Amino acid sequence: MLANPPPWPNGAACAAAVTFDVDSDSILHLEHPEDGHRRLGAQSWLRYDQIAVPRIVDLYARLGLRQTFFVPSWCAERYPGMVETIAEGGHEVAAHGYLHELAHTLEPERERELIRRSADILERVAGRRPRGWRGPLYSFSDRTADLLAAEGFAYSSSLMGDDVPYVLSTAAGEIVELPVDWANDDWPQFANTVDLDWRTPTRAPERGYEVFEAELDTAIALGGLWIAVWHPFVSGRPSRLGRLEALIERACERGAWFAPLEEIAAHVAELRRTGAWTPRVERLPYYDAPVRDPHR
Fold first, then answer.
1. Pairing of strands 225-230, 14-21
2. Which of 134, 163, 186, 229 has the most CB atoms at less than 10 Å from its CB?
3. Mean pLDDT confidence for 230-253
4. d(CA 295, CA 287)
């Protein structure tokens, strides 16, 4: 069913990653700029990242894995110790906006400024300039890829246009896109918050994991790419995180290759450089003006 799956290292069946978006309470202050500071119930739920992140890092250490954490740079400023824990564990710290802003709502210079600010802050806190970007809430404007390429980012993991990596081509250069999908996001499965206007029926961890495992099983069978997009304050809870170890172990037994996204993107770039595989290339933006009805 996949027309052009890439060859993965050492004959791996697929590439996989469990990425965490460490949003903490940035999303509350973005959504409620006037009174977010007064909503302590929501803050306590979101600030659970400070409990969950060390737990996740410890689990990955036990499994011998390095993975990718996407961090809004406001969170890196506010909670530097949490980001240092991630970096000291050998994990990739990638960019995720400043205060979780949505790219399509920003003016061009403001979007450019926030991308650069995000990279500068993460470099200072994590000790290394980020190579990857995930648009907050998967937001991606008609300028985002161009701005990322101009700033030297190697990859994005924000779009949903394929089942395998592809290349975004812009006037400023090219970056690798490692596509995601809502099916692998923990928000529809487990999130429940009145303050952020999202209500999901409470379900057992097994029910959510059934969705994730179905997607992972398919990626393994077809040679595709599986990227989980989870949040520490959601999936870092003991009952949910407790299922992750078994999921990873089963997938590894079946030949999945778990790696940080920067390594997956580098592998794709090397395949392309050597001619071992040719990814699909998409020229962005798709449109340069609003779409109008030509018959009106």
1. parallel
2. 134
3. 97
4. 18
